[in-house]
Design brief:
By secondary structure, the protein is α/β, with parallel strands linked by helices. The protein has 15 helices and 18 strands. The protein has helices spanning 36-42, 85-96, 102-118, 137-148, 164-183, 203-212, 228-238, 242-248, 266-275, 283-288, 296-302, 317-332, 340-358, 391-397, 425-444; strands spanning 2-9, 17-26, 29-35, 48-50, 55-58, 60-65, 121-126, 151-154, 189-191, 193-197, 220-224, 257-260, 278-281, 305-308, 375-378, 404-409, 412-416, 419-420. The strands form three sheets. Strands 1, 2, 3, 4, 5, 15, 16, 17 and 18 form a nine-stranded mixed sheet that branches. A five-stranded parallel sheet has the order 10-11-12-13-14. The structure holds zinc ion (ZN). Zinc ion binds at residues 64, 66, 127, 223, 259, 311.
Amino acid sequence: MLIANATLITWDTPNQILENHALYLEGDRIADLGPSSELQTKYPQAETLDARGQYVMPGNICAHTHFYGAFARGMAIPGDPPKDFPEILERLWWKLDKALSLDDVRYSALVCLIDAIKHGATTLIDHHASPNAIEGSLDVIAEAVKQAGLRACLCYEVTDRDGPERAKAGIEENLRFLKSQISNPQSQIAGAFGLHASLTLSDATLEACRAAHDARNYGFHIHAAEHEADQYDSLKKSGMRVIDRLNKFGVLGPRSIVAHAVHIDPREAELLRETGTWVTHQPRSNMNNAVGAADVEGLLRMGVKVGLGNDGFSNAMWDEWKTAYLHHKAARRDPRRMSGTTVAEIAVTNNAALAGVFFPQAPIGVLAPGAFADIIFVDYHPTTPMTVDNLPWHILFGFENSMVTTTICAGKVLMKDRQLLFLDEAEITARSREMAKNAWGRFAA
Ligand SMILES: [Zn+2]
């Protein structure tokens, strides 16, 4: 397929904006890139998708999300509003996840995946929990991802909060899924070993997780130091701070993701850097839970790899960009903090490198020959000059996620001119509303 008459934003190194260009796709890869007229002559038989001058760029990547949180939208929590993050966990998330059946898990994923296609997120790294429907839950999500045509890395959050049997079942679900990926590798599905957070994991369970698999092959994906409570708990349990404790149990490493890292000290940051562990930043979630502001710029200056996730907020990743841009200025009372270039560094460059850990078959997040054909069209008409230098600020102040008109993943067109080609949004959301209503009933019971 030939994507012609495009203004390409390559996000390559160096980034380029190329007018009147084209991409030739073969299978799930970009096979050629060049001036539109040249490629149209070179591939005269190719089916052509006319971009009509729109911006054509790599699909967005989300480094940490929770499909299972979809049914929380609009849900009332009985009683007084939770006063802090531990209360939010206990009174919202740890009750909602228990209310989910496998069918709820499927529809939670599907509605998030529709949202991702509509808003141009083509790769998602998910962190799943459904304590009353553990076994097979990752297969159900993988089926939804395949149905949607997107790319996702999946894991199950092991935790002790629901008792030893469910902790064991969580370990087994991760292992079962990771083994199925070895026997049947797929270029659009990958796995990690999920852990909830230090504060819900005993030493025995962490040891069992370490013993269960080789983290050099499959890294861990865990929340860490999202709130001070995680540190207090870790110090009480082990006399160690959270990142030190995770390091002791082999959780850190270049394939592992630590989400949040809001409340870490300099030695913990050093440990993250030394081990090459990925940190993901979710500013919308951090603001919503009032947990504070991670020192993202400090971590980057130290050489820690930081990516951008959404923690289950909408898959409109440019909203996460905008929040990151504003959050650090407000938190530090300094308008120089978190420049557009830094936001692009974490959201584009670092997220692409992180996605490459799980999908190493081809470059991801760039428009270049040989890269995965994960591509979006953006109907944006800049009112001021737009260059590679000021592009992040055009995205921050001009781009809207609804400007995404066409979404392609692995060479397959999933949305064309804002029409979803494979998923019936009306049917899926009608079913999801019914299922959410029932889940809310179980939540309140
Ligand atoms: Zn999370």
